[in-house]
Amino acid sequence: MRKLILPFLLCALLFLLPLAASADSDLSLSLPETVKGFTPCTIRLTAPFDGEATLRLYDRLNNHWLTMRVDVTAGDNKIPWNGLGTNLERLMAGPYHFVASMTSADGSEVTAKAKFEINATTPALVYALPSSDTLYLDKSEKWFVECYLCAVPFIVRMEVKNDSGKTVYAHDTTITDEDGLSLPWNGRLDSGKALPEGDYSVSLWCKLNPDYSFTFPLHIAEKRKPQPDIAETGPIVPERGMSDEEIWNIMMQPSVVIDGNGTFKRFDIYTRPNSSSKTVGSGPLRCNMQALEVLSVEGKWAYVRAWSHADAQPVEGYIQVRKLKILYPSKQYGILIDKQNQTLTVYESGHPIGTVPVSTGLPVGRDTWRETPPGVFLTDVHFGSGFSQDGYRYEYPIRYDAGNMIHGLGYVRQNSVRDYSHNLPELGQKASHGCTRVSMFAGDDGFLNIYWLWTHLSYHTRVIVLPD
After folding, report:
1. What is the tens place of the pLDDT at every residue in 295-349?
2. Are 87 and 452 in contact (CB under 8 A)?
3. Domain 125-221 CATH superfamily
4. Torsion-angle region of residue 295: left (phi > 0), alpha (psi -120 to 50) or beta?
């Protein structure tokens, strides 16, 4: 779905700061004195022999932001770079350094280091995530694209092409909100005429920096099929030991949710199929994003099961069928959070593509609400900016359950550097206020981090939290 065009034309490098390694290594490395994010530049590496060079990027606190492995030849080499991290993360302005290393045929290693500053960024479209792969002309479901620019205000171009490659619709939108924008479209031209049913492709980019664009398929249909009646769902949470295929099949099941008309308010269920009966707990369930396991349907009432937000304990009770609706998950990705092992696994099209350690909720005293509720959820729209709590700053939040989110580890600022050292050791154990914390740093050979999740997980991505 993501299309990145990176031409990396040779930069006009007027100021180079070569910093060689040890005198006997003959390996040297240099960059411009200053680098801008989302902007082509050239790393110059002089190698003593042919082979593979590994370049690792660090900030002043030795946080590791990027690993590049490139084949080089003896002598001068030019390596293109865009001033970004592993998953095209915009890096905070400040001092950085690359460390280059090569291993010779006899096993000895040579290294070199180059310092430089990141001081700005060229505006670019960071993500463009569609709300669905189908747009209905009858307006039975609102369709939109979530867009985020790394700097505002700037113009985003959207173009729609038919299956023969002809552009049939184009529109410019000025994005001014630092939190991003949900860009709606109803499948109609500016004249009001609807496009015919069929398959299309949609592309978006920042007009100032078209090298970073996003393209995805879109099917336009006249009407949405009638929604099925509320019925027994069967189990909605995978059992431990299930195959990846079984887990994926459960992930792709539709969700039966409480219709909250766009809100996330708490909702009561009853001990009997009667609104005059006692409630189970105190508003234990959330609307819209929390899936319910329907155990039975008894006339106008459904008997359901889920986990309470008050204490993360399972609850069962009755709710009127008319207050329920069915939502469908996005088909590309799914998230499995295992509270027992404190891990998050990403599934793509039925297969796991990576697992990272996380920190879920840690109850303190009587604050049982801090336990991360198990269950089945759908993600909401993204937040462009982070939030602060207890002296820490948290970035890249993805809401999936009213107040609970998947977001980055907390950090404090040391001048222009983000210091994650207080929360990094807590990964793999409960530590949060109910959300799921993920590291900013991908492994040396991996790619998954919170920024990848933030830029890839579209609206209504399935999130399953296994109980512990």
Report:
1. 999 999 999 999 998 889 999 999 999 999 999 999 999 999 999 999 999 999 9
2. yes
3. Macroglobulin (MG2) domain (2.60.40.1930)
4. alpha
Q: Which helix (H) or strand (E) holds 453?
A: helix 450-456
- Torsion (CA) 339, 345, 346, 352 in degrees, nearest 10: -140
In the block, residue with structure tokens 């801008």: 36
Listed residue (116, 112, 146, 119) closest to 130, CA to CA: 146
Architecture of domain 2-121: Sandwich (2.60)
Per-residue confidence (pLDDT) for residue 10, from 0 to 100:
30
Where on the phi/psi map is residue 106: left (φ > 0), alpha (ψ -120 to 50), or beta? alpha
The whole-model pTM stands at: 0.92
C-alpha 278/C-alpha 263 separation (Å) is 24
CATH superfamily of 227-468: L,D-transpeptidase catalytic domain-like (2.40.440.10)
Q: What is the amino acid identity at position 85?
A: G
- Closest among 333, 338, 329 to 464, alpha carbons compared: 338
Q: At residue 224, does pLDDT exceed 50? A: yes
Q: Give the max Cα distance, the chain.
A: 85
Which secondary structure element, helix H or strand E, spans residue 249, and what is its range?
A: helix 244-251
Residue 25's pLDDT is what? 54
Residue 125, CB-side half-sphere exposure with 13 Å CA sphere: 31
Q: Are strands 255-258 and 324-327 parallel, antiparallel or unpaired?
A: antiparallel
Residue whose structure tokens are 């709710």: 319
pLDDT at 188 over 80: yes
- Location of structure tokens 């113009």: 155
How is the chain split into domains, by residue range? 2-121, 125-221, 227-468
